[in-house]
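User: Can you predict the 3D structure for this chain?
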Amino acid sequence: MKLAVLGAGVVGVTTAYELAQDEHSVTVFERRQTAAEEASFSPGGLLAPEWMAACAALEWERANERQQSWWSKLLGHRSPVNPNPGPALLAMACHSLERLSQLSEHLMPSFGEQQGLMTVWRDPSGHPVAARLQSILADYGCKSLLTDAEHARNLEAALNPDTTLAGSLVVPETWSANCRQFVLQLKAHAQHAGCRFRFATEVLGIQHMPGQRGIRVLSNQQDASIELFDGVVLCAGEATRGLLKPYGLDLSMETRVAHAVSGLIREPLDAPSATIHDLQQGITIARTGQWVRAVGPALRASRLPRAGAAFKPLYESLSDWFPGALRTGVSGAVQEWSGTVTTTPDALPMLGPSGVPDVWINAGHGMHGWLLACGCAKVLANQLSGRPPEIDITPFQAQRSLPAAA
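Assistant: Here is the predicted structure, written as structure tokens:
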């Protein structure tokens, strides 16, 4: 088929590559000048399926406790409980990591490294949270180790001895890799396979042509708007919702904002050897080659700090845990990044037919696009080619939360 993929982040590029491998004719539309310029530009890099699933399961438990309490007080009974997203996320993440490993081995030898994950907390209130995470990890077949502060400092010698540390949870078998580097390399392989990329092309809408079989992608480039496609795959993050609204569909998706600080390492011995996650602040610090990066949690618009203050917690976290690791005072040594991510109410991406003829969705991955992209792309390619899915994709069906617009 002749297919259009909207969006050239990690989700869009992996989707385009998999579709090209099935000998579809693929054109990718992207409003930026190149690939991986938005949510895929600066993620933490961590590739840890069990950890991601455990965190989602813990958040689900907390949300349901709040919901149950609210409904009980208001109506005197318990509310329905949404399914735990952890098992479905774990299955997709493991599938995705396997596909990422295959692509890396075949196309990009020596890509990524095993670093391990150390979650740290500053006061005893983190102990029960970490213990619950360890229990969930064990349920998912993942080995982890709860340690005291002294053991944690022995494992990660670069931790600041002057920063209060109450304990750590260590997950040794995790990987880390540079998402943007992967996307740019895969884009080149996709082009070699015949994919066309239309950069600096903002998509304004999609349009089914009356009396014709095909869909136009309306954009700010007139020459790009005259083509007809057999199908369109929406991998455009927050823009995905707007593209479907004219068809009477309103995606249950929310846009959040994330921030990151990346800098050249001043002294390797002062930088982390593992990926460090601050349990109470939600900040992840990771080392990628000669760079160290701090990534904050994705926040709702109502919780965003005032202008100019968004990066302060990231610099403070780097300084608290690894003073001297960041090279400052040198032009180009530090990069600040802000970007949007879209998430769904149940924390599961939307994947598959949208309900609009010949329009497909691969969106709503939240902060986990880097880990889930390769698996979701492979699943979608299988769907479009009529092959049976390799995992249960029922929880990810796009139409599960597509109510008619009012």
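The chain has a mean pLDDT of 90. The CA atoms of residues 148 and 245 lie 52 Å apart.
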